[in-house]
Each structure stands twice: as C-alpha cells, then as structure tokens.
C-alpha cells in the first residue's frame, strides 16, 4: 500500500519572492516589480492605490508572474483532495459592465427598462440566481431568500433583472457570486454605487463569510471607502510597486492618509449660489411609477443656468428615472405637460433636440456603450466624438472638433505627451480609461446641461483628481450640472444645491 503525504499550506496566496508581473506576450518592462506578497489564512486583505487594478488582475490570473509560482498562486487550493484549480475556485465580482451587453459588442438599448419589459428581458433576479452558470446546478431557494434579505433586495427577487436600479443590480451581482461558492472571492470597489445604508450590510456579510474562510475575500478599495473591521492588511499599489503590510504598519498608515485627500485640495473656484440665469429645466408635479408602485411623486424642480445640483437618495429612489425624464429617454417624458426644457414645453421638442443640449455620463451609458472590435470598432477618439451629436455610432469629425477633443485631453493631462493613444479601440482600453473617455464625450459639445451620474466610478485616483480639477476650472459659468453620487466627498465644488429623493416618492 502506498501512502501519500500532502503538506498542507497555510497560505491562501503567495507570490514568489521578488517576483515581477508582465502582461501576457511581453517579457520586458514588468507592470509590477519585486512583488513580495503572501496572504496567510485568516488575514483580511484590501488592495488600494492607483495601480490596484493590475494587482487584482494578476491575482485573477490575467498577467504572467515571473518566476512562475511553484504549485500556483493559491497554495491552499492544493490542500483539497483532489486539489482545486484556480479557474473554477477563484471568482471575481466584476462591475466593469453588465454581462447582458450584446455579445456582438453592439450598443444595447438601455432605455428598454423604462417601458414595457420586452420578452427577452423578462428573466427575473430569482431565475438568474437559481442556477450556477458554471456547473448548471440548481441553488436552494431558501439560501437565495436568506442572502437577498441580508442585502435588502429580497422584495425585488421576482422583478425582471432589467428593471433593477444600478445599486440594486450591484447587490444582485455580489449575491450571485457568493451563491456560486468560490474558494476565493475578489471584489474591486464593491461600495461604488451603493447607498450609505447598504454599505455596512454588504461589508458585514463579506466579513462574516471571510471569518468562515468560505470564501476568502480580497477587496479593492478606493481612498474614501471606510476600512471594514475585518481588514487586517493592505497592499498599496503605486506605479509598479506593491507596498504591503498590516494596517498599523507605519508606511501603510502614511500611504493611506496621503491618498485620502482624494483630489479635494485644490478647490480654488467658489461657485456662485443660485444664479439669476435663464431657467433650463422646470418640472412641476411629476409622478412616475411602475406597476402601481410610486417612484416619483409630485416632484417639482427648477434648474437655472450656472447651478450645480447634487441629486441624492438611496438606491432605487428614482434618480435615474428622473434623469431619464429630463433627457427624454423615458417613454413618459414626452407626455409630461408640466415639463419645460431649455425654454420650451417638452411636448414640442423632439428627443434628439433635448439630447444635443445634454452631456451625460451614467452607469447605464457606460454599460451600454458599443464595444465592437474589428471593422466596426470605435477608437477612443471616435467614442469621444459621438458626444458632438449625442449618438453611439461613428460620425466623421471636423478639424475644429478634433482640436476641441485635443484641448480637453490636454487639460486632463492626457495630451500627446502623456502617451495616451486615442486611435486605440475604445473596447480594449482599461476600464478607467473607458470611464474617462465617456466623461470627455459628455463635455465635448459644451452642453448647457451636464449630467454626471456616478462619473468617477472605475476611474483611478489620479484621473479623479484631474477630472475634478477640470470641472472646477473649465466649465462655462452658464453651464448647469446635475451631479449624482452616494459620496459627498466626490463633489468637485464645495457647495451645491441639493435635491434629495427618498424611497417611496418624496423629495426635499
Ligand atoms: N420597468 C420597471 N419595472 C418595475 N420597476 C422598475 C422598472 N424600472 C425601474 N424600476 C424600479 O424603479 C425604482 C427606481 O429606479 P432608479 O434606477 O430610478 O433608481 P436610482 O435612484 O437611480 O437607484 P441607484 O442609486 O441604485 O442608481 C427601483 O426600485 C427600480 O427597481
């Protein structure tokens, strides 16, 4: 009889000593150098810093580690009998964009959710969560109900997925991954898009799972995210360097406090309070509901030239719905008799006339933007230029339009000298650059009304600082802005008018 002795490893993750990380297909210029990182069983790790995306991608097997780690990056997976492979055991909650993007990469109609739900979009959250897409196995409905309750989305389980708000979808996405029971779960910026009330619910649930080591959790956090109490260690990634240690480590404390200013320091420009400018938007007694459920009730709102508004409220309170009435995307926009846009009754305006005057960035547009490759691909520059006519497809550009694009790029520190190549396909840009391109797309046409809905989601800290500075310095004094964010510290200007929506339709 042969006895096999297996050495059990206490390490969840281990990079070989002083390893380098390369993009696949390259052997020069490592993206990360001299990495020394080991995550032991029981430790709670967060990844932070402007380069955190690269480290998380490496953990997910998207880059080459040299020297190659003996026994893999996840030694503890060899403790299982038979050993587990990282492919099926290490899972990522990806918020990059929703999976229901047409697989061809074509633009999908994100406004479909506002009208009658189409047959192909009828699939409910419960139906989606009930089957593990990897194994095809059925997931217990009690478990779904229990976890959905923890994240306060149980009452939405039987709604079509397409009807969920951005924050509700994010919670459903996390839930789906937890239900698939990976051994390691990697979440990058899980708090983005979540309202204040929900953040501790998610962090508590993740902490509980982490304490049971089922799964081990690694999270990417932004500087403004509160550090959950179960995080014991931080890997800070700056440029090509990873500095790691316990949360009390002096260097880690210093790095955290220096990144916490979050681009807020240069607030030189103080905006005028309520200007006496022309009225751009006037809404009176707006009521919108779905299937008898009120979302917006008796809402009245006036926006004048030059005003900076902060639109706030919990997930699902109707912010996106309200904005879709203003942009004309919502089927009930056209019938609003008490809605005036840019000096005219909405009922006399074609939707395209509205859209040419509104520059908008939102999670919905980020998800829906076409990402085709091949002959029909849009370059980064083409993608920006779609903003001149508020379209989603290629339009030839005039030389003046190219100059306008170059000016904004250079104001944001992305001019020619930065090495940012605008002829690259939009679809192959990293998420943070895609987010920045769509931000510039919203600005190019000097729109009188700018809607910035979760505009910084996915951007790295340096880009956020540049974008905030741009907004402070480069907008015209008559341009109005509606800024939507669950994070007050994201506001680029010190004071704003506030429209606060609540669940159930009230506003204040
Ligand atoms: N077609 C639909 N059918 C049923 N309910 C819908 C539909 N479309 C939206 N809803 C519901 O309307 C509510 C408002 O959604 P909306 O996207 O406007 O919220 P939000 O304030 O933008 O949320 P978040 O902060 O998560 O982005 C949500 O509860 C959503 O589930």
TrEMBL record:
<dbReference type="InterPro" id="IPR003439">
    <property type="entry name" value="ABC_transporter-like_ATP-bd"/>
</dbReference>
<dbReference type="GO" id="GO:0005524">
    <property type="term" value="F:ATP binding"/>
</dbReference>
<keyword id="KW-0813">Transport</keyword>
<feature type="domain" description="ABC transporter">
    <location>
        <begin position="281"/>
        <end position="503"/>
    </location>
</feature>
<dbReference type="InterPro" id="IPR027417">
    <property type="entry name" value="P-loop_NTPase"/>
</dbReference>
<keyword id="KW-0067">ATP-binding</keyword>
<dbReference type="Pfam" id="PF00005">
    <property type="entry name" value="ABC_tran"/>
</dbReference>
<feature type="domain" description="ABC transporter">
    <location>
        <begin position="16"/>
        <end position="264"/>
    </location>
</feature>
<keyword id="KW-0547">Nucleotide-binding</keyword>
<dbReference type="InterPro" id="IPR003593">
    <property type="entry name" value="AAA+_ATPase"/>
</dbReference>
<dbReference type="GO" id="GO:0016887">
    <property type="term" value="F:ATP hydrolysis activity"/>
</dbReference>
<comment type="similarity">
    <text>Belongs to the ABC transporter superfamily.</text>
</comment>
<protein>
    <recommendedName>
        <fullName>ABC transporter domain-containing protein</fullName>
    </recommendedName>
</protein>
């Amino acid at each position: 009889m042969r006895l096999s002795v297996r050495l059990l490893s206490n390490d969840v993750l281990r990079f070989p000593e002083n390893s380098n990380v390369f993009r696949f297909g390259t052997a020069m210029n490592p993206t990360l150098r001299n990495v020394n990182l080991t995550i032991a069983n029981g430790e709670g790790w967060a990844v932070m810093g402007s380069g955190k995306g690269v480290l998380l991608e490496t953990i997910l097997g998207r880059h080459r580690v040299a020297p190659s780690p003996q026994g893999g990056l996840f030694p503890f997976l060899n403790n299982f009998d038979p050993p587990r492979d990282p492919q099926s055991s290490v899972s990522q909650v990806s918020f990059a964009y929703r999976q229901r993007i047409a697989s061809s990469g074509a633009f999908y109609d994100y406004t479909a959710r506002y009208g009658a739900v189409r047959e192909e979009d009828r699939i409910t959250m419960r139906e989606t969560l009930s089957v593990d897409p990897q194994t095809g196995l059925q997931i217990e409905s009690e478990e779904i109900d229990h976890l959905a309750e923890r994240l306060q989305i149980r009452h939405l389980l039987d709604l079509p997925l397409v009807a969920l708000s951005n924050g509700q979808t994010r919670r459903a996405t996390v839930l789906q991954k937890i239900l698939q029971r990976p051994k390691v779960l990697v979440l990058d910026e899980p708090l983005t898009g979540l309202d204040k009330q929900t953040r501790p619910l998610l962090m508590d649930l993740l902490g509980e799972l982490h304490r049971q080591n089922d799964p081990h959790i690694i999270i990417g956090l932004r500087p403004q995210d509160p550090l959950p109490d179960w995080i014991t260690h931080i890997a800070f990634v700056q440029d090509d360097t990873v500095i790691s240690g316990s949360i009390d480590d002096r260097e880690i404390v210093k790095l955290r406090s220096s990144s916490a200013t979050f681009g807020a320091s240069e607030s030189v420009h103080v905006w005028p309070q309520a200007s006496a400018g022309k009225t751009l938007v006037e809404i009176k007694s707006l009521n919108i509901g779905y299937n008898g459920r009120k979302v917006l009730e008796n809402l009245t709102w006036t926006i004048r030239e030059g005003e900076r508004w902060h639109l706030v409220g919990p997930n699902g309170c109707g912010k996106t719905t309200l904005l879709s009435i203003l942009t004309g995307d919502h089927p009930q926009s056209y019938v609003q008799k008490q809605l005036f846009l840019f000096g005219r009754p909405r009922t006399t305006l074609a939707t395209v006339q509205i859209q040419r005057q509104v520059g908008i960035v939102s999670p919905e547009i980020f998800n829906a933007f076409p990402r085709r490759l091949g002959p029909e691909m849009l370059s980064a520059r083409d993608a920006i230029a779609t903003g001149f006519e508020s379209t989603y497809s290629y339009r030839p550009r005039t030389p003046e339009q190219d100059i306008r694009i170059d000016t904004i790029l250079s104001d944001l520190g992305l001019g020619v000298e930065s090495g940012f190549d605008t002829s690259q396909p939009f679809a192959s840009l990293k998420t943070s650059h895609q987010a920045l391109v769509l931000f510039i797309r919203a600005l190019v046409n000097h729109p009188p009304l700018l809607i910035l809905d979760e505009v910084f989601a996915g951007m790295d800290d340096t880009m956020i600082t540049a974008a905030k500075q741009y907004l402070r310095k480069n907008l015209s004094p008559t341009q109005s802005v509606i800024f939507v964010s669950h994070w007050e510290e994201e506001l680029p200007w010190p004071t704003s008018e506030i429209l606060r929506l609540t669940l159930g339709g009230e506003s204040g």
